[in-house]
Amino acid sequence: MKQMQIMATVAIVAGAVLAPFDAQAQQSGDTRTDLQRHDLSAPGREAIQVRVDLAPGVAFGKHTHPGEEIIYVLEGQLEYQVGDKPPLTLKAGDVLFIPAGTPHSARNPGSVTGSELATYIVEKGKPLVSFVKQHADKTAH
């Protein structure tokens, strides 16, 4: 009986501690669901698949990956800014290839959740996402 009380107390405390983090993730409006990760036959490379859901109006800032990203839009529409190219809006069924190390961002300009299946072919052991620092001191020439 005493052990059950201790476990119940631990569960309540853990729930109270973790709840703010879960709420913060839900409030941000983007959800990443890891689907699979496998080593490839190419040494030092792995494939990772992730479902990314962006709520209406939500943006995912400029970032890079240590390998290629292959995108398939599942639902809604998503706007991508890849390198210095003009923004590109894709709808369900559209695809996009982003070369390794290319800075890019995504946002949902629509009124419903936008979802993509992202497949990464990346260097194993490196962070999957690295955010690009924005330069605040842009001067006109």
UniProtKB/TrEMBL annotation:
Pfam families: Cupin_2. Gene3D superfamilies: Jelly Rolls (2.60.120.10). Keywords: Signal. InterPro entries: Cupin_2, RmlC-like_jellyroll, RmlC_Cupin_sf. Residues 51-112 form the Cupin type-2 domain. Residues 1-25 form the signal peptide. PANTHER family: CUPIN DOMAIN PROTEIN (AFU_ORTHOLOGUE AFUA_3G13620). This is Cupin domain-containing protein.
